[in-house]
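Support case: coenzyme A complex. Customer-provided input:
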Amino acid sequence: MGMANIDVFFKPSSIAVIGASKTPGKIGYAILENLKHSFKGQIYPINPTCTEILGLQVFPTVKDVEDKIDLAVIAVPANIVRKVVEECIKKKIRGIIIISSGFSEIGEKGLELVLEKLKEKIRIIGPNCIGTFVPNHLDMLFLDGKKLKRPSEGSIGLITHSGAVGSALIDLASNEGIGISKFASIGNRVDVDEVELLEYLGKDVNTRCIVMYIESTKRGQDLINTAKKITKPIVAIKAGKTDKGEQAVASHTGAMAGSGEIYKTAFKQAGIIEAETIEDLFDYSKALASQPLLKGNKIAVLTNGGGLGIIATDIAIKEGLDIIDISKETEKALKKIMPSYASSKNPVDITGDANSERYRKAIDILMKDKEINGMVCITLFQTPTLDDDIIDVLRDAKMYGKPFVICATGGEYTLERAKKLEKFGIPTYTTPGRAVRAMRCLLDYSKINK
Ligand code: COA
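Agent response - structure generated as follows:
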C-alpha cells in the first residue's frame, strides 16, 4: 500500500460526514461543526432524516452526492456501519474513518471481521477512534474546542491507539504551546495501523519527531524495521505492561498487549526512545524536535536561583550527565560579568538579582566553551530584575548550535512566558528534573546509530 493512500486521511479535498446529526451535543453534530470551522474543502453531511444541518445541504446517502468524495467520516451505530461502508466503496471514496465503537473491543469480532474483508476495497482508519487532526486544516475531533483546546502547527507527529490519550495529549500540547504536525487516532486498526502511519510520518516533511501511544501491535518485526529506517527521533509509550494492564488492553481495542519486556527490547532494537509517563512523551519529543544532539555528557547548569540549580545538579548526575568542572579561563570570564557574591562554579548561580544582560553574557561565555556540550538554563522569571527582554536572550541561545533547555518553575506568569519560548522552539520545563531528563534524552538519541 503506497503512501499516497494515507495522504487522503490528512489532505482530502472533500469529506462526507456519515451520521452528521442535526442534534447539538451528539457526536455526529460535533464532528460536522469542527470540520466546518477547520476544513476549506467541500463537506457533505449524510443523514436520511433531514435536509440541512449547520447551513450545509444534507444528502440521504453518499450515492446521492454527484461530486467526487475523497474521505468519509462515519459516526453511525456499529450495526449500520457495514451498509454505509459498502455505499462508500460503490461511490469510490478513497478512505474512511470509522469513529463508531461496538466492535472487537466489546467482543463483536464478527462485525469487525466484515470490515477487515472490506479493506481490500477501501482504506480504513478505526473503528473505535477519534480520527485525524491537522492544526488549522482538518479537525474532525468530536470534542468541544472550548473544553479541549487545539494546538498550533508544529513539528511533532502523533499516533495513538487510544482516542482518550490522544485527545488529552492534544489539550496538553495546546496548553504548553507545543505545536503538532499531524495527529491520528487509530482505534482497533482493521486496516491502517501504527506501522503504516509511522512510515508515513517518517516521510512527512512537516514532522521532525514522532510520538506514539501504543498498546499492541500485530506487526512487531515490521514496526522494528520501519522505525530503524526512519532518521527522525521516535518516542513511544507502551501501555499494558502488567498482567492487569494487558487485560485492560484487550477490552479497550480488542487486541493482545504483549509483555512490557518484549516491547522494551524491541524499542531498543528499533532505536525508539521509550517514555514511561505521559509527561515524558512531550518532555522528550519537544527537545528532540527542536534541539541539536547532545554530543557528550558534559553540561553546564546556569541559574538565578541556587536551590533549583542544586536539584538540577543532583538529578543530572543520577541521569548520567556530567556537571563539568568549569575551566579556569571560563571561570575568569564569568567572574568579570557577575557580582562577587555569585558563584562561577558549575552550577553557575548568577543570583536572584541577575538581569537579562547578565544572563546574555553568562550564556555566551558558557556556550562558547568547547568543553561544554549543552546547557540547562534555570530562569525564575518572577525576580524583580528580570523583564521580558529575557525571552529574547533565551531565544537567541539557539545560535550556539548546542542543546539548550530551560527550567522555569512557577504559576501563571511563568507559564505564559514558557509558552512564548516554546513557540520560538526553546523547550521549557516546569521542574529541574524534567529539564534535565530531556537533556539526557538528547544524549540517548545521539547514541542511537541512525
Ligand atoms: N446514514 C447516515 N446517517 C444515519 C444513518 C445512515 N444510514 N442512519 C441513521 N443516521 C443518522 C441518525 O439519524 C442520527 O442523526 P440525528 O441525530 O440527526 O437523528 C445520526 O446518524 C447518528 O445516529 P444515532 O442512531 O443517533 O447514533 P448516536 O449518535 O447515538 O451514536 C455513535 C452513534 C457512532 C456516536 C455511537 O454509536 C458510538 O459509537 N459512540 C462511541 C464513539 C466513540 O467513543 N468512539 C471512540 C472514541 S476513542
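The two ends are 25 Å apart (CA to CA).

Case will auto-close in a few days if no follow-up is received.
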